[in-house]
Amino acid sequence: MAKQGKTASMVTKLRRLGLHVERSGDQWFARVNGYKLSITDQGGEIIAIYVQRLSAQADPITDFYPGSYFPSLASAMRFIARSHAEAES
């Protein structure tokens, strides 16, 4: 069996968590507790993990896109879980 690329492995992990994962070009998306998790792929390797609120809007004047980059899926998921818990308390 061929070894999976890092992106395919991460998508598999997200699906095992019960998340619906969609692909558009070189990006994969999943919705998690009011956030959009984006994974940018290049040749099977992850080059960016980005999280933003589903309600976030880009500022057309400054080109600012609200959200944060993360070094790993685990740190992105911890951020989402922590933010979700704070919003509910």
Q: Which fold does the CATH topology refer to?
A: TATA-Binding Protein
Distance between the termini: 46 Å
Instruction: Classify the helix fraction into a percent range.
Output: 25-40%
Q: What's the number of domains?
A: 1
Radius of gyration, in angstroms, nearest whole number: 14 Å
Number of helices: 2
Secondary structure class reads alpha+beta
Number of strands: 5
Report the biggest beta sheet as strand number plus sense, adding barrel if it closes. 5 strands, antiparallel
The level 1 CATH classification is: Alpha Beta
Order of helices and strands: HEEEEEH
Which sequence of strands runs across the widest sheet?
Answer: 1-2-3-4-5
Mean pLDDT: 87
Strand content: 25-35%
> Uncertain regions: pLDDT < 50 for 5+ in a row?
none
Dominant shape: globular
CATH architecture: 2-Layer Sandwich
